[in-house]
Every structure is written in C-alpha cells, then in structure tokens.
Design brief:
Elements (H helix, E strand, L loop, with lengths): L11 E4 L4 E5 L4 E9 L2 E9 L6 H14 L4 E5 L2 E6 L2 E6 L1 H4 L9 E9 L2 E3 L8 E4 L4 E5 L4 E9 L2 E4 L3 E2 L6 H14 L4 E6 L2 E6 L2 E7 L2
Antiparallel strand pairs: 1-2, 2-3, 3-4, 5-6, 6-7, 8-9, 8-10, 8-17, 10-11, 11-12, 12-13, 12-14, 13-15, 15-16, 16-17
C-alpha cells in the first residue's frame, strides 16, 4: 500500500536507551515505552501531543501513530529498519545515514532559539544572526545588527571563546535582544556544544543558543 508523505514532512522514530520511544509524523508527536517481543515492536503507555494541524498532516499523524502502535513486525538490515503490519510496510533509514550531522566548521549556523532558564524563545525569521566557525580557530559573528568575531577552542564536548569584538552600531528592538543573548552566551567561561543533524546547541548553565545550518 502506497502512502506518500505530506510534502516537507518526514517520519522519525527515536529509540531511547531508557526504553522510551518517540514518534514524530510531521505535526504531533507520541511518547511511549517500548519492547521487542517475538520480532515485533510493542509500544505502550502512549501519550500524544494535541497541536492543531492542517488536515493532510492530521491525517498522516493518525495513520502513522496507529501503524506504530499496532505491534508491527520489525527487521533491521544495516541502516534500514523495516516495519510491517498487514499490507502496510514502512522503511526507515538510520538518522545518521538519512540526515548526517553537519560539521561545526565551514557551516553557516543561524541562531534560531535563545535559551534562558526554562524558556526557549524564537524571534522573527527576518533577523538572521549567524556564527561561522573556521578551521583556523576564528569565529565570525553576525548578531543581525553588528558583525566581527573572535576566537574559539574545542575541548571534547566543551567550547570556549576568546574575546569577541563587534562593531558599535545601535541595535533596535529584537536585534538588541538577540545581540545581548549572543554576547552573554559566547562570554560564558565554558560552554558545551552538541550537533544533531542540522542543529547546533551551545549551552552554559541556564543560558544558551540553538542554531540551524543554513540551507
């Protein structure tokens, strides 16, 4: 049975070492616990988000979640996971094969999220603040208002920045907020960095930045 996906969406299964299973189908997500029994994926204790979705995405959510929760037979061959229930067959690639991690250096990273305590804030897409890490240890910074940069050094999962210099243009409104967040994060003594596919996270305590690789 062919079920083309809604354009711009993908199905993602996240099997966690803790026994948790995350399912994303394009709009809503499901969290559950799982076990493998007699070659079947058995999911239980499922809970679903309730985002209002356009009808095509809503329909896709419904059949994907029903399929995953129906106890499909599963087989793993290299990077490909196949789930089968009746005449419906789903084939999924390992995330690293389907959507590999972008390199830290040479990628234009666009700031998409500001982390502060338990809050994650976004801002207008028209404001494009970016970081670009060079292999020579230099980082170019564009706060969407001022530019320049500084130096950085990696230490495993840690990253530290030298003095960041910026031009002195006055920044209005949201631009000023973004610039303050970037300066505060990069000015932290030591941050952790993590790349997951096209996302880069820089964190230091309760502050940080989420960045996305520019297309």
């Amino acid at each position: 049975m062919d079920r083309p996906l809604v354009p711009g969406t993908r199905i993602r299964l996240d099997f966690r070492a803790s026994g948790g299973l995350g399912v994303a189908a394009g709009c809503n997500t499901v969290g559950a616990t799982y076990r493998i029994e007699d070659g079947k994926l058995i999911a239980s204790n499922a809970a679903q988000t309730e985002i209002g979705c356009p009808q095509p995405a809503q329909t896709q959510d419904e059949w994907v979640f029903a399929f995953i929760l129906s106890g499909p037979t599963m087989t793993l061959d290299g990077n490909e996971l196949t789930l089968t229930q009746g005449d419906l067959v789903g084939r999924l690639l390992d995330r690293e094969a389907a959507d590999p991690d972008r390199p830290l250096t040479g990628t234009h990273w666009v700031v998409s999220t500001i982390l502060s305590g338990d809050t994650a804030s976004s801002f207008p897409a028209s404001l494009r603040a970016t970081l670009q890490f060079g292999k020579d240890g230099h980082v170019a910074v564009d706060t969407s208002c001022n530019t320049e940069g500084g130096t950085y050094a990696l230490d495993g999962t840690g990253i530290s920045f030298g003095s960041i210099s910026l031009t002195k243009k006055a920044c209005p409104g949201a631009s000023a907020q973004i610039e303050r967040a970037i300066v505060a994060t990069l000015g932290s003594d030591r941050l952790t960095w993590e790349i997951d596919a096209a996302s880069l996270w820089l964190r230091s305590g309760d502050v940080g930045l989420g960045l996305t690789a520019r297309q």
